[in-house]
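Any chance you'd type out a single protein's sequence alongside its tokenized fold?
>
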Amino acid sequence: MKKNIHPEYFSSAKAKCACGAVFTIGSTKPEIHTEICGRCHPFYTGKKKLVDAMGRAERFKSRVSKKKESPKKKVRVRKLKS
């Protein structure tokens, strides 16, 4: 390896989740803050909750409700003249 080009490696870096979990990992940063971890992620916990990232869940729900309310429009197909 070349010298002085690689970042410093912290073998006991602390990772903190928004749910309050704190665990030790290896990283190039001494402390990491995450929004979601394996302890609170719906896939690992089995709970069916939506993880909302900046209102995306509400936007999706509103689009789905609009789709259900509006009837499908008929599409006219025009034949090309030969």
Summary: DSSP finds two helices and three strands in the chain. The domain at 10-60 is CATH 4.10.80.400 (Rhinovirus 14, subunit 4). The beta strands are 10-17, 22-27, 31-34.
